[in-house]
Design brief:
β2 and β3 form a beta hairpin. This protein folds into three domains: 36 residues, no CATH class; 46 residues, Arc Repressor Mutant, subunit A, CATH 1.10.10; 132 residues, Tetracycline Repressor, domain 2 (Orthogonal Bundle). By secondary structure, it is mainly α.
Length: 228
């Protein structure tokens, strides 16, 4: 039996090189090279990664909404159902509840970071950008039902979360404060870390006391930054 190539570099109908097997008993029949299947698998890999990324984002958005409604202890099956995926898919992305909480927290921190630059560029004044960004920050803090208790647990997943929070959000706050000070709208020398900590302190108790309006207290604080 002999093996001979067909027309050099010719492609078969499926896109791969054909090999002809001649056993001397009749017309030679083309046979696909073995690399056709791996090529298809390679094409499918990016699609699988894109699907996984979409599923992860959908789960994060569903979990964030569920945390607002029911707190961080909301059942996993409820989050998966809202995201339109199975529980198995959920656990492939987030093996533990701590992994989910950290991922949601980081996802929303990054959203705050991204919107800061957008507000500064598109708002009428830097002070307007500051008030809007702080309002979003209050939303971020006030809707984390049960998060404080989770963060006080001994789970190692939470150890770097506070540092990540400061590392990402303080520079954004500093940038907006500097812009407002340069424009003469607020007094100079204000520190982003101190302001975020003050806002955070004002939000304590908002989820347990219906008579306490954290947003109103924060509005008074931000109004006090203005130059007289």
């Amino acid at each position: 039996m002999t093996i001979r190539n067909m027309v050099p570099f010719a492609k078969g109908s499926g896109g791969g090189d054909d090999v002809v097997v001649d056993n001397g008993s009749g017309p030679a029949a083309p046979r696909k090279r073995a690399d056709a299947a791996p090529r298809k698998r390679a094409d499918a890999a990016p699609r699988k990664r894109a699907d996984a990324q979409r599923n992860a984002k959908t789960l994060l958005d569903a979990a964030a909404a569920a945390f607002v409604r029911s707190g961080v202890d909301v059942p996993v099956r409820d989050i998966a159902a809202q995201a339109g995926v199975g529980v198995g898919t959920f656990y492939r992305h987030f093996p533990t509840r701590a992994d989910l909480i950290v991922a949601v927290y980081r996802h929303q921190i990054e959203a705050c970071v991204e919107v800061g630059a957008t507000l500064l560029a598109k708002s009428e004044t830097p002070y307007a950008a500051l008030t809007q960004w702080i309002n979003l920050f209050v939303d971020f803090l006030a809707t984390k039902h049960g998060l404080a208790g989770a963060l006080q647990s001994n789970d190692a997943a939470f150890e770097t979360l506070h540092a990540y929070f400061l590392e990402r959000l303080v520079p954004v706050c500093d940038q907006i404060l500097d812009a407002a000070a340069t424009a003469g709208e607020i007094r100079p020398g204000l520190d982003g870390h101190q302001l975020l900590r003050a806002v955070g302190n004002l939000c304590i108790g908002a989820e347990t006391d219906p008579r306490y309006d954290a947003r109103r207290m924060v509005e008074i604080l931000i109004a006090g930054l203005r130059c007289q």
